[in-house]
Amino acid sequence: MLFCHVTTHIDGAPYDELLTEKGGGGWPFVAVLDADGTLLARHGYDRPFTVAGYTQTIEEGIELRAKRRKGENYDKAAAYDWLLAQLSFGSLKLDEAKKKVTALGKLTPEKQAALDPLIANLEVALIEKEQAVALGKKFFDLKKAGKIPSDDGTRSRFWDAILDYAEDQKDAALYEEALKGSREAMEKAQPDLAEFMDRLFEGKERTLKKLKAGGK
To answer: Could you report the per-residue pLDDT of 104-118, keeping only the tens digit for each?
Structure first.
């Protein structure tokens, strides 16, 4: 159940995106996964990186796995705890979360109060995403008209917004063009970050690969 993996940045390497997928932002990162790869626990920096600390995280993962199993067997109390954990991990999309909430039926005021802010996180993220895509569409229209900003910082934001639109449209060619424009603009606007550019654009490069693999 405990799975350790180091990202390699090798094209075609299996599980090369596992660190990001499970919420890791750097090294060391320790997570407890179920047999199917579902996240059960993350070892945070609020806990020591010691045998005792790791043991506590693993035990939490084992306990949560048991609740997951019970929840899948119609134990609503366990299903509620599993839902809270998934929401705290960021493992669910809004529509998935709402279906799970509906399946739980009527909750006590205390349980509902604990759940509502976590659902609100997803609702806010969705609204922000919709606004980002809408902004990207407006900037894309400017691009088609040949109106590309001259200021490096403004141009960087311009291309970044188009990236959101291109991803939403699953347009790999546009995404690649916007990615190149975003990087070039940022390198000019913030030359002190040049040595970190590969890391900064790592996630966007992965998105481009997925878009190319899936087509438009």
So the answer is: 999 999 999 999 999
